[in-house]
Amino acid sequence: MKARIKWVEEATFVGESGSGHAVVMDGPPEHGGRDLGVRPMEMLLLGMGGCASFDVIHILKKSRQDVTNCVAEIEAERAESEPKVFTKIHIHFIVSGNELKDGKVQKAVELSAEKYCSASIMLGNAGVEISHDYEVVA
Q1: Dist. CA 137–CA 61, nearest whole Å
Q2: CA separation (Å) from 29 to 8, 18, 51, 132?
Q3: Which of 59, 50, 69, 45 is CA-nearest to residue 103?
């Protein structure tokens, strides 16, 4: 896997993935940015949430659940001093569908957290306290 980050100006960068997709990252005005894109640490959270959400949907579809929507709401805390690493991350999944079985959703979230989501497992192994929960919405 490869990625390329190109400096545009001030605190603005364009990141390009190995698959050829691009995203703008920028800093806040107080750090020389123009607020044109997500912050790099936000990007890390988005990547983790995308990884976990992909797993949950994939596992639920494999277990023949009729999922119609899945939202992952993420809250994170960072250290107060440099380096301002993440110390805690909580992912709350809101899953909706037709006749979803609560146990299947719970199992999908657990499997993502414990076995499949490389991003959250990597961050957990680095000392970040990661928690997950879910709710099923009709």
Answers
A1: 17
A2: 15, 29, 30, 33
A3: 59
Which residue segments constitute the domains of the chain, with CATH numbers given? 1-38 (2.20.25.10), 40-137 (3.30.300.20)
Q: What confidence score (pLDDT) does residue 28 get?
A: 94
pTM of the predicted model over 0.85? yes
> How far, in Å, CA of 135 to CA of 106, rounded?
9
Give residue 125's Cα distance to chain centre.
16
Contacts of 5 (CB under 8 A, 6+ apart): 13, 14, 15, 16, 25
Enclosing H/E stretch for 109: helix 102-111
Burial of 45 (0-12, 13-18, 19+ CB in 10 A): buried
Give me the average pLDDT of each 10-residue run along the chain (138 residues).
95 96 96 94 97 98 97 98 97 98 98 97 97 95
